[in-house]
Design goal:
The complex is a heterodimer of chains A (239) and B (364). Chain A has 239 residues and is an alpha+beta fold. Chain A has a single domain (27-234), classed as outer membrane lipoprotein receptor (LolB), chain A. Chain A has four helices and 13 strands. In chain A, strands 6-5-4-3-2-1-13-12-11-10-9-8-7 form a 13-stranded antiparallel β-sheet. The model of chain A is unreliable at 5-21 (pLDDT under 50). With 364 residues, chain B is mainly β. Classes of the chains: A alpha+beta (239), B mainly beta (364). Chain A binds chain B through residues 52, 57-60, 76, 78-80, 97, and chain B through 21, 67-70, 294, 310-312, 337-339.
Chain lengths: 239, 364
C-alpha cells in the first residue's frame, strides 16, 4: 500500500513538472506557430477572404490582405458599401450611411485595432522583432475550453489579451479595450471554425462582442491565398 | 410541383441581371413579368417576357438611396395598366404593352406625405376603378384615386399618421368593402366607398414604426404578424365590418417584413431578433414550434412552404401541423446585395429577386 502511495506521488510530481513546462511562453508560441502552419503562411503574399457580416442584417464582406501589413475590408451596412483600410501607414475608413461619403482617417484607438488585424502573420509571430512585449499571464478558459492567457503590449502602446487553446494552440479569443464616447468598452473577438487552406490555418468565423454583448459575426465562405491584389487599393482614396 | 429538390437546387431556367438595385418581387402576368429596380438613383419599371428577355423599361421617379438603396415595392397589374410606387412617393400608371406613362402623382408633393425612414415601400392596391395608396400626412393618411386618370376619389384622414410600408388588403362583405392597412402605429379599417375610418387598432410600444406585412382575412377574422408593436394578433371583425375585437396578441412575434402564411390552424413566419422560423397556433396565438433556418421571407404553394432567408438559402419545407419539415435547400449564389425579396411561384416556376438579378427556377 505504501509502495502504491509512493508511486502515485511520483506520478503527480512528474505531471506537475510537465504542466509547468507547458506554461512556458516560448513553448506555447512555438506550438501556436506550428498549429497555424506558419511555415506555409510565410510563403503567402496575399489573402482574400469573402463571406458575409452578420450585424442585424446579413451583408456581403470581403477582406484583402497583403504582406507585410496592408489591409482592406469591403462591407455593406444597410446595403451601402463601406471600407476600412490600412496601407502600412494610414488607417482610414468610409461610412457613407452616416451621411458623410468622404474617406476619413481612423481615430487612434480604432487604428490600433486595424494595425493589429493588418499584421499579416499575426502580432504574436516575431513579436520581439516587431517591438511588442508578450507575457504569459496564466491558465484560463474560453467557453469551458482550457486556454493559455497571453498579454501583449504592442509597440504602439495598445494592450491586448490572447487566449490560446491549451490543446490545439489556436487563438480562441482576443480581448482589447476601446474608447466609445468617453467610456472604455471591452471588445472580444471569438475565433471559430478553423480550417486549413493550403497548409495554413484560418478561422472562418469571427464573432465580436462589444461590452459583453454580441455585436457582429464575420463568416467567410472562401479564403484564397496568393491571388492578385492591387497594392494601391489599400491607400486612402483622395475623395 | 417538385416535392424535393436536387442538392444544388432546382434547375435555373434563366437569369436577368440588369435590374439595378432593389428588394421588390416580380409580378407575373399571362404574357409578361414586371419588376422595379433602381439605377443611379432613378426608379425604373422593367418589363420582361417569360423567358427573361428584356422588353422595355420605364422611368418612374427618384428611388430611395438613403439606406438600403433600391426599389422596394412590387408593381400592381390590372388589365393593360401597371401601377408602381417609387421610394420617394411617386405613384405612376404605365401601359403594360408600351411602357408609356398614363399618369403620375407624388405622395409627398401632391398629398403632403412624409417619407418614412426606409422610404415609401407600399405596393398599391387596385380594386374596380380605384387605386388606394398611403401618403401618410396628418390629413391624408390614405387616398383613393381613379385608376385611369389619377384623379382623387376621396381622401381619408385615417389616423393622421405617417405611412408604414404596409401594402393594403381588401375585405369584401355584403354591406361594404373595407381597406385594411397600417399607418405608423395603427391598423386602419377604411370604408372604400368614401374613406370613412370604421375602426382602428393601436400598436403599443416605444419607437414603433415598422408595420410591414399585409394582414390576412379569413371567415370574419383578421390575422397579422407585424414588425413591432403588438406583434402577432388576431382580430374578430363584426358581420357588418364596423367593429373589431381582439382575440389574442403575442408580443414575442417580431417578424419585420418577411410575411406570414396561414395554413389551416397554424401561422408560419420568421422571427427577427431571434433568427429562426416558427409556428403559431391560430386559436390562442402561442408559438408551438420553431426551426433554425436564419430569418427571412416565406411563401406557400401546392402544400409546400418556400422559405428564402437573409443568408441566401432557399428552403423547401413541408408544413405538418405545427412542424415545418425541411425537405431540401440550396443557396442563391447569383445577384447582389441583401436577400430580402419574397419568392414568387407561378406556373411551376419560382422567381427569386436578388438585387440586380431576377432568377427563374423550374420547380415543376
Amino acid at each position: 500500500m505504501k509502495n502504491q502511495f509512493y508511486w502515485t506521488v511520483v506520478f503527480l510530481m512528474i505531471s506537475s513538472i510537465s504542466g509547468a513546462q507547458d506554461i512556458n511562453l516560448d513553448s506555447i508560441l512555438a506550438r501556436h506557430y506550428h498549429a497555424i502552419g506558419i511555415g506555409n503562411l510565410l510563403q503567402v503574399n496575399t489573402i482574400i477572404m469573402t463571406g458575409t457580416i452578420i450585424q442585424q442584417d446579413v451583408m456581403p464582406a470581403k477582406i484583402t490582405r497583403m504582406r507585410p501589413d496592408k489591409y482592406l475590408m469591403e462591407f455593406d451596412v444597410q446595403d451601402i458599401p463601406g471600407l476600412q483600410g490600412y496601407d502600412g501607414q494610414t488607417a482610414w475608413f468610409t461610412a457613407p450611411w452616416s451621411g458623410n461619403p468622404k474617406p476619413q482617417v481612423m481615430p487612434d484607438d480604432r487604428a490600433k485595432d486595424l494595425r493589429c488585424r493588418a499584421d499579416f502573420d499575426g502580432v504574436l509571430y516575431n513579436w520581439k522583432g516587431k517591438g511588442h512585449n508578450v507575457e504569459l499571464v496564466g491558465r484560463d478558459s474560453v467557453e469551458k475550453a482550457p486556454a493559455y492567457k497571453l498579454k501583449i503590449i504592442k509597440k504602439d502602446g495598445g494592450v491586448e489579451f490572447y487566449y490560446l487553446d491549451a490543446a490545439r494552440f489556436t487563438i480562441l479569443k482576443r480581448v482589447f479595450y476601446r474608447m466609445v464616447r468617453g467610456q472604455e468598452v471591452m471588445v472580444e473577438n471569438y475565433y471559430r471554425d478553423y480550417q486549413m487552406v493550403q497548409g495554413a490555418l484560418f478561422a472562418f468565423s469571427l464573432e465580436t462582442h462589444f461590452g459583453g454583448q454580441p455585436y457582429n459575426t464575420l463568416q467567410f465562405d472562401t479564403i484564397q491565398l496568393n491571388q492578385p491584389a492591387d497594392a494601391s487599393s489599400f491607400r486612402m482614396p483622395v475623395k | 410541383m417538385l416535392k424535393t429538390w436536387p442538392s444544388a437546387g432546382p434547375e435555373l431556367l434563366w437569369e436577368f441581371d440588369g435590374l439595378g438595385n432593389g428588394y421588390g418581387s416580380p409580378v407575373i402576368t399571362k404574357t409578361n413579368i414586371y419588376i422595379n429596380g433602381e439605377i443611379d438613383t432613378v426608379s425604373y419599371l422593367f418589363a420582361l417576357d417569360h423567358t427573361g428577355k428584356y422588353l422595355w423599361k420605364a422611368k418612374i421617379g427618384r428611388e430611395w438611396i438613403l439606406n438600403y438603396p433600391g426599389s422596394r415595392s412590387t408593381p400592381t397589374v390590372v388589365d393593360d395598366l401597371v401601377y408602381v410606387t417609387a421610394g420617394w412617393g411617386q405613384v405612376t400608371c404605365i401601359e403594360t404593352l408600351s411602357g408609356k406613362e398614363r399618369w403620375t402623382v407624388n405622395m409627398m408633393t401632391d398629398f403632403h406625405g412624409t417619407a418614412p425612414r426606409f422610404g415609401f415601400s407600399e405596393s398599391v392596391l387596385v380594386s374596380g376603378n380605384t387605386l388606394y395608396c398611403s401618403p401618410g400626412s396628418p390629413d391624408t393618411n390614405v387616398v383613393a384615386l381613379d385608376r385611369f386618370t389619377g384623379k382623387i376619389n376621396w381622401i381619408s384622414k385615417g389616423a393622421g399618421e405617417m405611412t408604414s410600408y404596409c401594402s393594403p388588403m381588401l375585405i369584401s362583405l355584403p354591406q361594404r368593402n373595407i381597406l385594411v392597412t397600417f399607418s405608423k402605429t395603427t391598423m386602419l379599417g377604411i370604408d372604400t366607398r368614401d374613406g370613412t375610418m370604421l375602426w382602428s387598432y393601436q400598436q403599443e410600444g416605444e419607437g414603433i414604426d415598422c408595420q410591414v406585412n399585409t394582414p390576412v382575412y379569413e371567415n370574419g377574422t383578421i390575422y397579422s404578424v407585424a414588425g413591432n408593436g403588438n406583434g402577432a394578433f388576431r382580430l374578430q371583425l363584426s358581420d357588418d365590418g364596423t367593429r373589431i375585437n381582439e382575440i389574442w396578441r403575442n408580443g414575442r412575434c417580431d417578424n419585420l417584413m418577411g410575411g406570414f402564411i396561414k395554413v389551416n390552424d397554424y401561422i408560419y413566419t420568421s422571427g427577427y431578433e431571434i433568427r429562426q422560423y416558427y409556428t403559431l397556433e391560430t386559436a390562442g396565438g402561442k408559438i408551438v414550434d420553431s426551426v433554425k433556418f436564419d430569418r427571412g421571407t416565406i411563401n406557400y404553394a401546392d402544400s409546400m412552404l418556400y422559405l428564402y432567408n437573409e443568408k441566401g438559402q432557399v428552403g423547401l419545407f413541408k408544413p405538418n401541423g405545427p412542424k415545418m419539415e425541411q425537405i431540401s435547400s440550396f443557396k442563391v449564389t447569383r445577384g447582389t446585395k441583401a436577400h430580402f425579396s419574397h419568392p414568387v411561384i407561378c406556373n411551376g416556376i419560382m422567381y427569386l429577386r436578388h438585387g440586380k438579378s431576377l432568377l427563374a427556377y423550374k420547380i415543376k
